[in-house]
Amino acid sequence: EKISKLRVSTQKDLIYGGHLSKTISDFAAVTAYFNDENDEHCLCRKITENNDEFYINSERVNKKKYKSFLEGFGIFTGMNNFMIFQGDIEKIVSETSKERTQIFEKFSGSDKLIKKYDISQKQLKIEMDIFTQALRKKREALTERRKLDFEKHQADKYNQLRNKLTSLQRDIVLLKLHSLNITVDNLNESHDKFNEEKNNILNNICTKKDLYASEKSEFSKLFREISLLEKHISDIDLKIKQLKPSYEANKNKVTYLDTKIQNDRKLLERFNSNYEKSKIQISEFEQSIKEVEKLIISIG
Questions:
Q1: Which has more confidence, 96 or 245?
Q2: What pTM did the predictor assign?
């Protein structure tokens, strides 16, 4: 039997005898019964030569409502193909998975939902991207919060150390004030000693004046000797002028080396001075801390 013989080209062909152009009946009808949670529903389709009628529980309805009711029971009226013969089954088996999927999509009516599915899939991707971005921002916010908590902890620790340092500095100032009172007494004693030493120095000055008079006569003798030395120096200057060309050649180099040596010496002296000052300050600070600790122990 050919598949084409199971199909009709016009609605009236569904009426008995219609395909012979000699109808025996005025209509054709099909009725289906459905049980839904102990309720029975009766669906009927009546076909005449010119149109068809739809009934749900003996109540006439339009085609749209009738179709919607059927789809509620999983029956899709829009299907165009059915697996009728064994040859159709064998053909489907030989199809690729993609082609079989398309056939079953037509059977189930899900092919009409492909466009909606693609739109939903794109929307899902957008939502996933938004979710991923929100999750990344949340992680970044959590990282930033942990960083802020760490910085706050460090700030609290710094404030504690600063308060402790302020307390120690206050104790040091009190100790210095206490030591100043002792120092004033020592200065008074030193002042008396200074006056005594001053008187001794004045007496020494008088003695030195007497020595100056005697030294002056000696100076006259030395002046004469200096005159002789100046003559000798003039002779030496003459020799120097003779050696001056070679001296001038090396003068710039000697000046540069001398300047560099002087600068290096000054830099070394500055470093040594700073080093000694730092040692003294460290020593004083350590001594002050020891004194503070002793004072705290004595107070406690």
A1: 96
A2: 0.31
